[in-house]
Amino acid sequence: MRTDGRRVLRITASVAGALLVAYVVLGVQQFQNFLTLGAIYALVALGYTMVYGIIELINFAHGDVFMVGAFASMWIMTVPLGLADRPIEDPIRLAGVLLIVVVATMLLMGTIGVIIERFAYRPLRHAPRLAPLITAIGVSFILQNIIQAVFSPSPIGVPQVFPRVKIDLLGGSIGVLNIFMVIVALALMLGLQLFVGRTRLGRAMRSTAQDRQAAELMGVDINQTIAITFLIAAALAGAAGVIQGLYFGSIQFNLGFFAGLKAFTAAVLGGIGNTTGAAIGGFVIAFIEVLAAQLGFSRWSEVAVFTVLILVLVFRPSGILGQALGERA
Amino acid sequence: MRLTKIGALAAASILAFAACSTTGTAPGGSAAGGGGTGKTVKIGTELPMSGAETANGEPTANGVKLAIKQSNAKGEVPGYTLDINVQDDAVNGAHDPQQGATNMHTLEADTSVVGVVGPFNSNVAQAEIPISNAGGLLQCSPANTNTSLTYPPDAAQYRPNNPDKINYIRLAAPDSIQGPAGADYVFNDLKAQSVYILDDTETFGVGVGDSFAAQFKKDGGTVTKRDSAPKSTTDYTPLFTAAAAAKPAAVYLAGTTPTGMGLALKQGRTVAGFESIPFMGPDGVADLGPGGTTGATITVAGAAAHDVFGTVAGIHDLPSGSTFVDDYTKEFGKAPGAYSAAGYACAQVIIAGIKAAVAASAADMAATREGVRSNSIKAGNKFDTVVGSISFDKNGDITTPFMSFYKTDLTASGGKGDWVYVKQQAFTDPNAQ
Amino acid sequence: MRSSLAAVVALARRHRSLTILIGWALVGALLPMIVLIPPFSTFQGQGLWIGGFANAGVFILLALGLNIVVGQAGLLDLGYAAFFAIGSYAYAFGASSFTGLHVPFWPMLLIGALAAATFGVLLGAPTLRLRGDYLAIVTLGFGEIVPAVFLNADKYTRGTNGIGGVAQPELPIIGKFTFSDSLPFYVTMVVILALVMVFIYRLQESRLGRAWQAIREDELAASSAGVNTITTKLLAFALGASTAGFAGVFNASKLGIVSPDQFGFAVSFTVLAMVVLGGMGNAWGVAVGAFTLYMIQSVLLKQLNQFFGGLHIPVLQNIDFVQYQFLLYGLALVGMMLLRPEGLFPSRRRQQELHGDADTVDGAGPTAETSDALADR
């Protein structure tokens, strides 16, 4: 227990140090962009890492679940809530709207996540490794095409309900929306940590991840545990989709591909299977991208991210926080 | 040894089959059927007709359809009925050079096609011109603006089979005019001394961005920063945040809305320093679509689309007395797109070529095809078209390029927002000097 | 009758390479004839069909190459288009007005393949020791990096404009191939495919082929049995890459222009769908799968568009079938994995692996699961 506490302390100190460095390197305005982007990547990366942790599947469709989440939130805002593309000034009404949109999207996406797992992945749980991965690629295509068919292939505007108010903070002017996004993301991550660490279901998830057969022998309902993992992963991606739409204002059917790839890189970077690592990885990727933009190398930012991915996998496959897994066949 | 024999055998047998089948022609996709008697001759269209780029291709193809319909009604080419062969180069919602090449093979193989209107995108043209050149088929692009397509010596590389046969002409003013025209507008009319340029890494965007930058510097302005962001970019805020440091007085979005410029506009407006300064873009941004049109700049950018200016590489005011806009609106139930008139004019150039070839009693379709091609670039030939009297120089560029300027007005079109016309300007033949 | 058939089969078994060559010669000669018969003849003219077949050949070649990597050695490569791009650019550098070099097509075929293989080894050497799904992601990243580098290094590649004026092949009697006549390209492609196929079958039955198979089935066991897994995998990677290099050189010369947007992930995934659909591991199956998918996307979907566009049925009329090509791939990938993971034309070996597993999966057979458990220790 003591070593665990020390480890937490060490990670917290390193994160604080890294944030300070990022703040100094990027300056306030870019620091805010970095945190916002990082929050989205981190939320999506968590889904990759959780699913991988429990069934060792790279859920290739996860980026597209995130994309569907963005579309779902757009639909919830425009159709059932009938919101127009203008800021809601009344803070209480705004809070109500955001709560409804975030919760409804998370529930909807969680359901979709469970459905995907039930019909696309569960039948293949005992198949050779590549089979579910190929299925996941197929699911990714199907999700993209459904959205393209329903919402057209063009970029679609998301109602900009959040007022673009800025406040003076840290010596710069910071968007309230950005603060909101980061807080939502951190709250969700904290909630996840507590859930995994403190609840019965969370314990079931951890034990299934460690040794599925042993967990089963101990009375864990494997199917239910895996389904819940998918539910949480997809719900988090849904939440990321909501803030993506709110912040960037426009969404397109193919936005999940690259976002998913980057989030996966984040998960690998942080040590796949490790939720804290995934969150940190998300911020690292965001840092690389924002730094590239800041220095005028934006056209190379994709290359930089994927090069990092390859280098990490080659030299430290266990990631920043992952335990040394050794070589796995 | 065994191998070569079998290969040779296969080759010989295939050659034999091919030889006895050259008479079979393909029916192709015909849409505008004619009731007239006599032979059918077709004009092809090769444009993006689906996905996010429907707004580019469809109104342009409609212009061609209208030209064919009206020409048939007048019986302009005696003994012939004109028809259309429509091809779509969009794959998964975006124009695709490989698909364009396949389409061009299709059109080239349809011997009744004597001229093609298209393509819309410059990188598609790069893949198509070698094919149409080998088949001696005239391509008239209403919208391509990349300089390398016509300017020697670059353009020669697209004609490996018939280097001396120019078979590609275009109505749009090339980037070497559009970029500088935008630069002059920003510097002289908008009175901005400094500009931030963002391109989309695509053929068109980079080309027009380069020529904008060169002219803007020549005018005495400063380019504070130049960025490139591929169309997969979803977050443009860090770019604008970084660019804000130098406090540019205007932004030039060198690219198209389907490749991210609409999103860049929307997000750029949220960054301090960019809330109210003018944004300018080429015709990929100034798509002339009113708010609510799927994928149009004003739709994508929403409330951020204020104070946006744009150039369109063509004429706005049609010559007086033209009934084109009315005819088009009556036929298709909506107003023409940015390149509808240019599509119509391209069809007119091809029809004029058919008339000339028929008058010279062309022996067959191949001779008609060649007649259409040579007629279009023959020195001294002028064409009376819906966009005025035009002619093409020895490289295939229009000798009287026009540039039209527009700006957004979010109160236009009943509050949905629309592009309003500002002015148009005539330029001189870019290849004259 | 039956005995003579049996004799032919026996003969075919004994002279496999010859059979493949004759098979390809027959296919190559018959295809242009079949398309003269309705309904094919009503879709498009023979010249177009042949051009289409030559393009299909590019994808067959790619699928055959990817099949070595995915189907035979069991390594999932999601960035295969990168090697296609390297082959294409190698040819564009070697034979275009851009560089001023004019190396003839035929040696460039080999040079392009070598260039692709070199990059295959460079990428593979450090990454092939990773487990399968990590490797998939590394290759996916590589597949994104390569076109991005060709796009951004515009000083050396003309960037987004691409390199135009890429030379066409030349032969003594025929002369220079032209854009208007696809037949020489088609014949060239048939010959390349026949040779590659012979090579692949020889490989499959060689020591190396058996080593791939062993690795695919159980890497740990293969390694304990003395198979050098790294070298073996590296060879699969290099051979797969070089096949893509061939395809790249051919495609560059047929299209006449090379630009970065031709090599996106869509190409990698299309080829993967072809391999999966055709049946991983079985070269003929993969070839048929690639041919079928290519024809569906390039001819059938268009015909459907025209057909339903002509009929005035409200909804169907407006569906653009070509747009939904990737929906088709998606459904094919999921459907195949769930219902028939061995593909439409499975290799016998692969079928045994997949279905043998299914039968013993709850027991303690040498399944994927137990071998993973072993590896996880």
Structure keywords:
heterotrimer, B: alpha/beta, seven-stranded mixed β-sheet, globular, C: mainly alpha, two-stranded antiparallel ribbon, 18 helices, 73% helix, disordered C terminus
Count of helical regions of chain B: 12
Shape of chain B: globular
Strand order of the largest sheet of chain C: 1-2
Largest β sheet strand count, sense and barrel closure of chain C:
2 strands, antiparallel
Number of H/I helices of chain C: 18
Task: For the record, give the distance between the C-alpha atoms at the N and C termini of chain B, rounded to a whole number.
Answer: 59 Å
Mean pLDDT of chain B: 84
Rg of chain C, Cα atoms, Å: 22 Å
Q: What share of residues are in beta strands of chain B?
A: 15-25%
**Mind telling me the C-alpha Rg of chain B?**
23 Å
Q: What is the helical fraction of chain C, as a range of percent?
A: over 70%
**Average pLDDT metric of chain C:** 80
Characterize the quaternary organization of these chains: heterotrimer
Q: What pair of chains forms the biggest interface? A: B-C, 60 and 63 residues
Quick one: overall form of chain C?
globular
Largest sheet descriptor of chain B: 7 strands, mixed
Instruction: Give the SSE string of chain C.
Output: HHHHHHHHEEHHHHHHHHHH
Write a structural description.
The complex is a heterotrimer of chains A (329), B (433) and C (377). Chain A has 329 residues and is mainly α. Chain A is 74% helix and 4% strand. Chain A has eleven helices and four strands. Chain A has helices spanning 2-55, 62-78, 91-121, 130-151, 176-198, 200-210, 212-217, 222-248, 255-270, 275-295, 301-315; strands spanning 156-157, 166-169, 172-175, 250-251. Chain A has a two-stranded antiparallel sheet with strand order 1-4. In chain A, β2 (166-169) and β3 (172-175) form a beta hairpin. Chain B contains twelve helices and 16 strands. In chain B, the strands form four sheets. Chain B has a seven-stranded mixed β-sheet with strand order 9-8-10-11-12-15-16, sandwiched between helices. A five-stranded parallel β-sheet of chain B has the order 2-1-5-6-7. Chain B has a two-stranded antiparallel ribbon with strand order 3-4. The N and C termini of chain B lie far apart (59 Å). The model of chain C is unreliable at 357-377 (pLDDT under 50). Chain C has helices at 2-14, 16-34, 40-43, 46-72, 81-94, 105-127, 132-152, 154-157, 183-204, 207-217, 219-224, 229-255, 265-278, 283-310, 314-318, 325-339, 348-360, 368-376; strands spanning 170-171, 175-176. Chain C is globular and about 60 Å long. Chains in contact: A-B, A-C, B-C. Chains A and B meet through α1, α9 and α10 of A and β9, α7, α8 and α9 of B.
